[in-house]
């Protein structure tokens, strides 16, 4: 997956490929009739490029404005020229919901959220490979450590000096005070965070 996309091929390079200058001939593999072989190769290349539908080719990378409605895409840019940021996990894809004729294109992400993205942003046609990655099961605990994942321990199983949920009789998060909310090892609430809304004033 190309996270950073290079510059697109210029028309000058494309024309030089189809119409080479006379002083730089093609090197033909056929020693019998090199000129006839080169001419037929160029004609076949032109015919294939004219009949090729790039929008339906899996792996084609182009701006969203050049794609059709209903196309499944992946590796989408959030801002033009900033590289692919969205839909990069294994086995997922997004879908174009509306024809990208305006400045913004409506896309449905794998989470179900519909997002407006700049039509100048580029994306890749198709789905990310390895769709069975999420169904993979680890055979033993050591296999997760091979992947670099450190073991996790719940707060109620730790000593009270190391975690606010630790200590007490049994598995209780109160630690002596009833009704205490869940919090992080550093004492910050982890369910809803601190309340920032102002209280309603009564007249």
Commentary on this structure:
By secondary structure, the protein is of the alpha+beta class. Helix content is 16%, strand content 14%. A hairpin with a 5-residue loop joins strand 6 (104-108) and strand 7. Residues 23-33 have low confidence and may be disordered.
Gap from first CA to last CA: 60 Å
> What characteristic shape results from the CA principal axes?
elongated
**Radius of gyration (Å):** 29 Å
Number of strands: 8
Describe the largest sheet: 6 strands, antiparallel
Measured as a percent range, the helix fraction is 10-25%
Summing up helix and strand content along with how strands pair, one would put the structural category as alpha+beta
Strand portion, in percent? 5-15%
What series of H and E elements makes up the topology? HHEEEEEEEEH
Q: Average pLDDT, to the nearest integer?
A: 78
The largest sheet has its strands arranged as: 1-8-2-5-6-7
Please tag this protein with its features.
203 residues; 6-stranded antiparallel sheet; alpha+beta; single chain; elongated
Write a compact overview of the structure shown:
With 203 residues, this protein is of the alpha+beta class. It is built from 3 helices and 8 strands. The strands form 2 sheets. Strands 1-8-2-5-6-7 form a 6-stranded antiparallel sheet, with no helix packed on it.
Draw up the topology in text:
Layout: H1 11-18, H2 34-51, E1 61-63, E2 72-74, E3 76-77, E4 84-86, E5 94-96, E6 104-108, E7 114-118, E8 122-125, H3 141-146
Antiparallel strand pairs: 1-8, 2-5, 2-8, 3-4, 5-6, 6-7
